[in-house]
Amino acid sequence: MPVSSFNQIRVSASALAHNYRLLQQRAGSGVRVLAMVKADAYGHGMIEAAQVFASAGCSDFGVAEIGEGVQLRAAGADGNIFVFLGFRPEDSGLFFEHDLIPVIYDLESGAALSREGVRREQEIAVHLKVDCGMSRLGILPKDVESFVTALQQLPGIALGGILSHFPRADEHDSLHSAEQFNRFEDVAAQAGNTTSLMKHIANSGAVLYFPYTCCDMVRAGISLYGYYPDGNAGAEREKGERLQPAMSFVSRVLQVKTVPAGTGVSYGHTYTTDKETRLAVLPVGYEDGLSRHLSNRGEVLVRGKRAKVRGRICMNLCMVDVSEIEGVQSGDEVIILGHQGDDSISGNEIAGWMNSISYEVLCLFGNNNERTYSK
Ligand SMILES: *Cc1c(COP(=O)(O)O)cnc(C)c1O
Question: Which of 39, 166, 189, 297 is the residue whose CA sits 20 to 30 A from 2?
């Protein structure tokens, strides 16, 4: 039996399912909601999260690299699995063997799949990524027509869909997404806008703030894990039912000690006590995803109250100030992320301390710790 760590990520399956159903409602019943399960489902566990989404009605999943797709299929996932980052030509057979859907953005990939399709006497449907303003993966709009023409000459391969990605859909009152959506619609028309050509561009922000962009399918990530892409502002603006954060991060107190005023704390003594101080030592550090940027900035919950991080966060340890919290003892539960008593610390709050976004906090915590799942 493996010995469990002091640090545990808890994932609420009911929160994941709630978020999936809410997104499906917002997108509309005719729209497919693809669950983005890349980055091990934003730290929630790709295989487990995909199972929960599937039970809630999901039949489309998105991963970054082909290896993740192979792993998800091998774990028994039904439905469509889209691979978004492309692939090495020599790996193109894996799409056929594991029934995965390639997203392509160059003709070399198309040619490699075509050769494989001919060899296997099978046709594969690909989705074409177009860069309508993100300046990330994808061919430029001006190249779409010639690309589609070239693709149509290749045997063993068909164009199943066309997609793009919004860079600013988290800005709920920006005009940028509307402009980009127009560009996408023009591009889809150039690609032959038939009913068999699937169109998808919307991420979480677009589903929530620009629902007219949902097209045939949306690709939801952060919202399925319970966070608004624009953080607390989005949650506070919500008039309907709210998304529910699914992850919490629980640790415990290792040791408690009282040190006099003028005592330096942790590497470099970047914090010096200004009075007699009770410190709790916690078994969590940057190796566990508690970023070193939280040194002298982060807070945790002990006995339902907030304790501030003092000094630098170490690799596997950090110190918090429990001077104002009655009765803290070694073994006490510590909440790094989540609720305790009447208080809670959200991924948005932690992201604020780190000058980052909830997405990164979830990946850091979830992918560097043991996970357990609850109903
Ligand atoms: C990650 C990703 C998404 C999901 O974005 P969220 O903001 O998390 O909803 C959608 N599409 C693509 C191509 C992505 O890489």
Answer: 39
